[in-house]
Prior knowledge:
Blueprint: E1 6-10, E2 14-18, E3 35-39, E4 42-46, H1 54-62, E5 70-74, H2 80-83, H3 86-92, E6 97-101, E7 119-122, E8 127-130, E9 136-141, E10 151-155, E11 160-164, H4 183-197, H5 201-211, E12 218-221, E13 227-228, H6 230-240, H7 249-254
Parallel strand pairs: 4-5, 5-6, 6-7, 11-12
Antiparallel strand pairs: 1-2, 2-3, 3-4, 8-9, 9-10, 10-11, 12-13
Helix pairs in contact: 5-6
Amino acid sequence: MVFETRVLYDDGKHKFLMLGWEEAEEEGIVQTNQYLIVDNNEGVLLDPGGAHVFPRVLANVAEQLALDNVYHIFYTHQDPDVVSGIMLWLSMCENSKVYISALWTRFLPHFGIFDADKVVPIPDNGMSISLRSGVELRILPAHFLHSTGNFVLYDPVARILFSGDIGVAVFPRGKRYQIVDDFEEHVRYMEGFHRRYMTSSALCRKWVDMVSRFKIDAIAPQHGAVFTGENVRKFLEWFRNVRGGLDYIDEIYGRHGG
C-alpha cells in the first residue's frame, strides 16, 4: 500500500502536511513520520529523519516548495531516527537553521555540524519560531518524555500539535494507517512503547495539563498515526494516566533483591 503526502490543514496560505511513507515495510526498520509546515511559501521541517528516509522525504518536500525556502528544521530530540540526516538536509536547504535542545547542541559535531550560526539552541522552557507572516510556532517542553532534552511544536494556525514520541504507535507488519479511526483498538499499538519510554505518570499528567491550554484539532506523532477530532481528547485522557518507567521501578528491581 502506498501512503502519499496527506494534507492535515490548508487554508490557501498556511499548510500542515504529513509527508508520505516508504512503500515497503522493511524488517527491523523503525517507521517514522515527517511533517512539513508551509506558511506563505516559507517552509518548516519537523523531525525530517535519518539517511535511510532522506531520498523519499527530500522528494516529498521538493513537491511542495523550493528547498531554498525551507528556513527552519525543528528536531524534537537527539535520536538517530530524528536527527542523523541533519548534514544531508543542511547541504540541500542552505537557508535553513536547525532548532534543537541546547542540551544536544554539543553532540552535533559528531554528525558533522560545526557551524554554530546554523544552530538555534532551544532553552529548557521552550521558545517560538517566528515566521515572516507573523505566525508564531510554539516550541513547548516535553522533557523526559522520553528524552532528557525533548520538545514538541504547536502550530496555532492549523491547531496541530506535533508531539514527537508522545503518542507513538508501533504497527504490526501490514497493519499501518495514517489516521486513527478506532481509538480503543489503536491503544494496543501504543501501550508497550509508552510503558517502556515514558519516564513517569507524574510527567505525563504535567504535560497534558500544559498542552490542554491550547486549542488542538490534531496531534501528530513521529511514529504511528495522527489523532483527529474526538480522538485528540481521548488520547490526552489516556496519556494522562500512562504509567512509565519510574512507576515500575520496584517491580523491576525487586526481582533482583533490590
